[in-house]
Amino acid sequence: MTTTEPFPTARLADEDVRVLLLENIHTDGADFLRGKGFQVETRDGALGEDELIEAIQGVHLLGIRSTTYVTEKVLDAAPDLLAIGAFCIGTNQIDLAAATARGVAVFNAPYSNTRSVVELAIAEIISLARRLHEKSTDMHNGVWNKSAAGSHEIRGRTLGIIGYGNIGSQLSVIAEALGLSVVFYDIDDKLALGNAKRCSTLEELLAVADVVTLHVDGRPGNAGLFGDDEMSQMKPRSLFLNLSRGIAVDTAALRKHLESGHIAGAAVDVFPIEPKRQGDQFDSDLRGLKNVILTPHVGGSTEEAQQDIGRFVASKLRSYAAFGGTSLSVNMPGINLPADLDKHRLALVHRNAPGVLARINAVLGEHGVNLEAQSLSTRGEIGYVLTDVAEEVGPEVLAELAALPETVRLRQLS
């Protein structure tokens, strides 16, 4: 890891903290941060790289959803940036390695919209099985087609879940309660819930599943996970859902298998390229197919989920800015020291090397700084230490701590 330009170490008053929230983040998040005295600017749509570089100048806390990409170039242009909040589950739109190397903490909402995604998956499975979307379209076109042909119950069918994380496992439980048999495949060793059965290979799952649903993350290894070969191995007339990551599926191959009838229907909520703003043109290989439900990345977009996400991520950003708390951070070691208004706190992100804590404390000791509390944690190549002291430290002490060869970022919090 290498540090970039010198970082600001001066203490920030709440009223000096600047926040930029993009992509229609729920107003509860902005209201929470404003209530803490922060300066908050909100924008409706996503920003491209150059737009974000311009907008992020002087910003301390950045909030995004899934369509704004925080690249290394953006991070290089944002020396004041302290933390990024992904107001969603995924963080693949953020260069985590570059953020960590610059001491920028990243937070997300790993649980808040789980139920919303699960409920959409269930709704779409039933809709595809009953062909409700096709019948609704016919009715709007003035066609009365009262027929049971091609409509099926989901009870007794087998649901194959690829990715058995928070969403996949909860979907498993609810699907089983509706009478579906559940099989799943995950590269990690996951505990099967209820009567769900683990498949040792993806091929094993595809051979038995009447409905296949993807719930994988955005790691690079999942790009192209599901293509022509995998679709060819699905049972004839089975159903397919992708409510996870657009990069995981070859949409051209999916169209081919839908047009041939090998796959009876599909529901897709995520796409390799998505519009950045409301009303922008949407293009996909899957447009125009009667047996496909297309939704604009709304799996987690319920009022309940977005409100909870807004509050949750905003509280994490505020805790980090004000107190240095990194609980549930995606990229930083997790530390929380209780807020103590009678103490002064230093937050130091450093390279994980032997003897760093001793060198930090030696600097403090040489200047007669009395330690009141201290907590250190490491995570891979990075370490993080919070230190409470009785009196505010002077600029000489800060300069010496910042000059330590292992220091990535230093802040004086109170």
UniProtKB/TrEMBL annotation:
<comment type="function">
    <text>Catalyzes the reversible oxidation of 3-phospho-D-glycerate to 3-phosphonooxypyruvate, the first step of the phosphorylated L-serine biosynthesis pathway. Also catalyzes the reversible oxidation of 2-hydroxyglutarate to 2-oxoglutarate.</text>
</comment>
<dbReference type="InterPro" id="IPR029752">
    <property type="entry name" value="D-isomer_DH_CS1"/>
</dbReference>
<keyword id="KW-0520">NAD</keyword>
<dbReference type="InterPro" id="IPR002912">
    <property type="entry name" value="ACT_dom"/>
</dbReference>
<keyword id="KW-0560">Oxidoreductase</keyword>
<dbReference type="Pfam" id="PF00389">
    <property type="entry name" value="2-Hacid_dh"/>
</dbReference>
<dbReference type="InterPro" id="IPR045865">
    <property type="entry name" value="ACT-like_dom_sf"/>
</dbReference>
<dbReference type="GO" id="GO:0004617">
    <property type="term" value="F:phosphoglycerate dehydrogenase activity"/>
</dbReference>
<comment type="similarity">
    <text>Belongs to the D-isomer specific 2-hydroxyacid dehydrogenase family.</text>
</comment>
<dbReference type="Pfam" id="PF22629">
    <property type="entry name" value="ACT_AHAS_ss"/>
</dbReference>
<protein>
    <recommendedName>
        <fullName>D-3-phosphoglycerate dehydrogenase</fullName>
        <ecNumber>1.1.1.399</ecNumber>
        <ecNumber>1.1.1.95</ecNumber>
    </recommendedName>
</protein>
<dbReference type="InterPro" id="IPR036291">
    <property type="entry name" value="NAD(P)-bd_dom_sf"/>
</dbReference>
<dbReference type="InterPro" id="IPR054480">
    <property type="entry name" value="AHAS_small-like_ACT"/>
</dbReference>
<keyword id="KW-0028">Amino-acid biosynthesis</keyword>
<dbReference type="InterPro" id="IPR006140">
    <property type="entry name" value="D-isomer_DH_NAD-bd"/>
</dbReference>
<keyword id="KW-0718">Serine biosynthesis</keyword>
<dbReference type="InterPro" id="IPR050857">
    <property type="entry name" value="D-2-hydroxyacid_DH"/>
</dbReference>
<comment type="pathway">
    <text>Amino-acid biosynthesis; L-serine biosynthesis; L-serine from 3-phospho-D-glycerate: step 1/3.</text>
</comment>
<feature type="domain" description="ACT">
    <location>
        <begin position="345"/>
        <end position="414"/>
    </location>
</feature>
<dbReference type="Pfam" id="PF02826">
    <property type="entry name" value="2-Hacid_dh_C"/>
</dbReference>
<dbReference type="InterPro" id="IPR006139">
    <property type="entry name" value="D-isomer_2_OHA_DH_cat_dom"/>
</dbReference>
